[in-house]
Amino acid sequence: MRAGPQQDDDAGTRPGPPSGVTIVGASAAGLSTAEALRRRGYQGRLRLLDAEDRLPYDRPPLSKQVLSGAWEPSRARLRGPDQLAALNAELLLGERAVSLDLRNRSVTTDTGRSLEDDVLVLATGLAPVVLPGQDGLAGAHVLRGLDHALALRRDLVTAARVVVVGEGVLGAEIAATARGLGLDVTLVGLGHTLLADQLGGTVGGVLTDLHTERGVRLRLGTAVESVVGDGGRVSGVRLTGGEVLSADVVVAAVGSRPATAWLEGSGLPLGDGVETDARCRAAPGIYAVGDAASWFHEGLGRRLRLENRTNAVEQAQAVAAAILGADRPFTPVPYFWTDQYDARIQAHGMPSPGAQVSIAEGDPADRRFVAVYTEGGRVTGVLGWNMPKQARLLRQEHLAPPDARRPPQPSVR
Amino acid sequence: MKVTVDEDKCCGAGQCVLIAPEVFDQRDDDGIVVLLDSAPGPDQHALVRESAAVCPAAAIEVTEEA
Q1: What average pLDDT does chain A have?
Q2: Which of A15, A16, A86, A132 has its CA 20 to 30 A from that of B7?
Q3: Residue A314 in contact with partner chain B when CB distance is under 8 A
């Protein structure tokens, strides 16, 4: 069975609210789904399962405020104890989902327990990709969870030289934070500008200049062959040409994959993530939300999977509504932001590398501007650089209105 | 309903202004949230709750007691 963009026959035939909902993954997407269900009047059983034995926390600060030490880790918590208690949900923390039975809609965990429920929500997020040779080497890091951030911070505060591999959002943020800590930072990446894949060459070029000005050594258009070590401790990275860049700390920020290995063989449609229909449903009674969810975006006419914080919570609203019987496709205007040094960069829509870029307000030379991305005569993206309000206003002018944000209907019937 | 915002956490996304423009605005210079009404009327409650729910920086807190 494959859930495609078409509606399945039994959509909307559930007689009333479900008797119980189990959400696998208690980060932003999973937690927000639980909260949205309650806000919409759902009073049944609610279970939140997460492999990490920590109260739900926020990830964007990990590469910035937590890594720099500006925030105590507790400040990254998503909700306080009172708010979690008010949710009236069973929090099953430190317990990992290992398999899913589609027929019985049950999840088996690493303690051997089986959680069967009327509705399952899959929100397991991402697993970072590691570089060849880095496994088991002290001083070689990835950054996805809070433990990763704290381990990296411990190493950075005593390090002199760090190599960051990856020129995407995460790599660039880590490089900026490490420079802020006074380290000698080299960033190695395959692309020819920073964030070229996310924002294209024009804005990527401005960002590349910023990192150069701030003293980051850039090795762009360069591939890393492996992480190298000495006596169990990292000593650097070897580039494909054979050159070795030495470092006390190496961070791999070379992308992530949807954390769906546990679903293999379940019968759920897995491609680039859990594949769902336009209403975020992977199978009857089974929904996917957040970084691991690939849904059919009816506005774009194709599948989309977004690895960003805003989508996690927006999609959570749509999933909660769908669980309670709403019949509305999820068609958001994508949005993400990144903070590096004194630059706050905000991307609305789809600012793809193939688009034509024009400056609508401000001036890149002043590091304060709004860029508009156009493809085939249509505005597809709006990017603000230290002009948040102006970017948001241009988004409202040019990009599809957020009609998915009509006020929620408070009752479940 | 009582609304509070954490300016330090705010990332200036403006999602709240898109949803509840009668309650939230953004500063012109840095885009940080401006709370226009800390005790909005009932007609705004659903929109404010939605704004808090989708704030990507978890910077809006809503207390339901009057």
Answers
A1: 93
A2: A86
A3: yes
Has residue A11 got a pLDDT over 50? no
Q: A407 and chain B: CB distance < 8 Å anywhere?
A: yes
Chain B positions in Cβ-Cβ contact with residue A38 (cut-off 8 Å): none
Q: Which residue, among A251, A338, A309, has the nearest Cα to A125 in the 3D structure?
A: A309
Contact A310 B30 (CB under 8 A): no
Residue A7, pLDDT above cutoff 70: no
Mean pLDDT score, A216-223: 98
Minimal-distance CA residue of chain B relative to A57:
B58
Q: Determine the average pLDDT of the residues in A245-258.
A: 98
Nearest to B13 among A39, A335, A410 (CB): A335
ipTM of the prediction = 0.94
Residue A388: its chain B contacts at CB < 8 A?
12-14, 26, 30-32
Which residue in A has a C-alpha nearest to residue B44's C-alpha? A407
Tokens of A21: 């909902």
* Mean predicted confidence (pLDDT) in A265-288: 98
pLDDT at A8 over 50: no
Task: Please check the confidence at residue A384 and state whether its pLDDT lies above 50.
Answer: yes
Flag if A346 and B18 touch (Cβ within 8 Å).
no
Contact list in A for residue B11 (CB cut-off 8 A) is 60, 337, 339, 344
Entry pTM: 0.93
Contact B54 A408 (CB under 8 A): no
Q: Does B62 touch chain A (CB under 8 A)?
A: no
Residue B50 contacts A, CB cutoff 8 Å? yes
Nearest Cβ partner of A388 from B12, B18, B53? B12
Gap from B2 CA to chain A (nearest CA, Å): 15
